[in-house]
């Protein structure tokens, strides 16, 4: 089982923002869930899903009209957020989230969202992390079109690539495990098709969806998420308002707690809290969570691409 402290903390570098921390427990089951397919092949130069080159067999008729429109005043192209992740009092690494640009996707357009995580140099000695997640999210309906997750965590090297055919209620999924060597060689590969509900969200897009919503104390928020072979419902409980002081500034915040199907996302202790700025932007300021041993705290250190100060920011 991959529950070593360094692995838990480094894995959170990437996933702490997405309101889908449950992915941690799901990812630990990847090896046992996937077929034992041994393939010795060279890794392709590009990992991006190509909807023109797929085994997906689509139905003749459209299943969903995709007529949902969600106003967005929370984020824009050029936004970049930087975070420090601490394991106890130790700096474990740094993570970023960015809205890179807007790109065409068929007859629609999508935000290209990118999140990266890397362990601190002191942690690299024990467990080096260089993770990257990319999501193509519809600009009008705020749902997923494509998703790529590239994990490089010590000897664990794994990719997940997804094309969402939202009009047809289908997804084309490919998961790849690599040998622990350079250049990378494929160790296991699994490709399958999945039925999806309309407007399903990947783990990164789900966070940006929450930021577009009107968060009210005591009023839960619901969404449907996808990860690998799983489609699951996520509930976000809006708990209370608090003031937080971090390196990026002092902010009035809303504290929320994500819950999966009536369960706390962290099965070990069942607690995960996220603080968002109490304004139109709903920028993540801090996250605290209990892990196998100890706790992890994530703090916002830098905001770029947004006019400052934020409406929620307190000037001393």
What distinguishing features does this structure have?
single chain, 316 residues, mainly beta, 15-stranded antiparallel beta sheet, 5 helices, 10% helix, disordered N terminus
| Gap from first CA to last CA | 47 Å
**What is the helix tally?**
5
Find the count of extended strands (DSSP E, 2+ residues).
15
Helix content: 10-25%
Q: What does the average pLDDT come to?
A: 81
- Structural class, by secondary structure, is mainly beta
Radius of gyration: 19 Å
How much of the sequence lies in strands comes to over 45%
Low-confidence stretches: 1-54, 262-270
Q: What is the global morphology?
A: globular
Order of helices and strands: HHHEEEHEEEEEHEEEEEEE
Total domain units? 1
The major beta sheet can be summarized as:
15 strands, antiparallel
Account of the protein in words:
With 316 residues, the protein is mainly beta. The chain has one domain (5-40, 51-304). The chain has 5 helices and 15 strands. The protein is globular.
């Amino acid at each position: 089982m991959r529950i070593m402290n360094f692995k838990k903390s480094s894995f959170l570098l990437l996933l702490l923002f997405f309101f889908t921390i449950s992915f941690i427990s799901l990812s630990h089951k990847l090896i046992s869930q996937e077929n034992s397919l041994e393939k010795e092949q060279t890794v392709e130069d590009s990992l991006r899903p190509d909807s023109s080159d797929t085994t997906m067999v689509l139905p003749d008729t459209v299943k969903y009209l995709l007529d949902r429109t969600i106003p967005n005043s929370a984020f824009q192209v050029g936004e970049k957020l930087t975070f420090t992740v601490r394991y106890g009092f130790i700096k474990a690494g740094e993570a970023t989230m960015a809205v890179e640009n807007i790109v065409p996707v068929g007859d629609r357009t999508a935000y290209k969202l990118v999140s990266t995580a890397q362990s601190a140099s002191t942690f690299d000695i024990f467990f080096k992390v260089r993770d990257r997640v990319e999501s193509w999210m519809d600009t009008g309906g705020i749902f997923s079109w494509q998703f790529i997750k590239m994990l490089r965590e010590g000897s664990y090297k794994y990719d997940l690539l997804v094309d969402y055919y939202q009009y047809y209620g289908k997804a084309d999924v490919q998961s790849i495990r690599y040998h622990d060597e350079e250049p990378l060689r494929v160790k296991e590969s699994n490709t399958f098709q999945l039925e999806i509900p309309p407007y399903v969200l990947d783990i990164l897009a789900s966070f940006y969806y929450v930021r577009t919503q009107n968060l009210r104390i005591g009023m839960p928020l619901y969404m449907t998420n996808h990860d690998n072979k799983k489609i699951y419902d996520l509930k976000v409980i809006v708990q209370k308002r608090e003031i937080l002081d971090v390196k990026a500034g002092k902010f009035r915040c809303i504290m929320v707690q994500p819950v999966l199907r009536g369960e706390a996302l962290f099965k070990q202790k069942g607690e995960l809290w996220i603080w968002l700025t109490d304004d139109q932007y709903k920028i993540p300021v801090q996250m605290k969570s209990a892990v196998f041993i100890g706790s992890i705290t994530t703090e916002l250190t830098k905001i770029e691409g947004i006019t400052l100060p934020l409406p929620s920011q307190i000037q001393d």
